[in-house]
Amino acid sequence: MDNRIMEILHTYSLRKTPIRAQMLELFLNANQALGQQELELQMDTADRITVYRTLRTFEQKGIIHQAIDGTGKMKYALCEANCDEHAHHDSHAHFHCEVCNKTVCMEQIPIPHITNPLGYQVHQIHLLLSGTCKTCQ
Ligand SMILES: [Zn+2]
Ligand SMILES: [Zn+2]
Ligand SMILES: [Zn+2]
Questions:
Q1: 50, 56, 108, 120: most buried, per Cβ within 10 A?
Q2: Which of 93, 68, 66 is nearest to 79 (CA)?
Q3: Ligand 1 mean position to 125 CA, how many Å?
């Protein structure tokens, strides 16, 4: 068992289950955002509901965050270290490759700070970059 997996489960006070460990391993090795379907395919021991529930738990705990990439399919990526149960702090852009359909976090590109545009209240901002990734160029 990978130490990082144990460390993450411990930090977020989650009991170790084979499903949680397996899903974390997939996220740790992925280097890209993963959708529920991709996870299901790689986690043949888990049914859809379990995969869905585990994703929800991880998101609520601050382990993974949503990476909205314009495809309409929800993808998730590992959080930066400072997320917790109460708030996500992943204010970075996401890049979606139009060729290979890969979505990655761009931690080095922060989301600009925007306050009350024309009286609207902003709760979330998503910054999506799309184009061709390094591999597909
Ligand atoms: Zn987060
Ligand atoms: Zn690509
Ligand atoms: Zn991200």
A1: 50
A2: 66
A3: 14
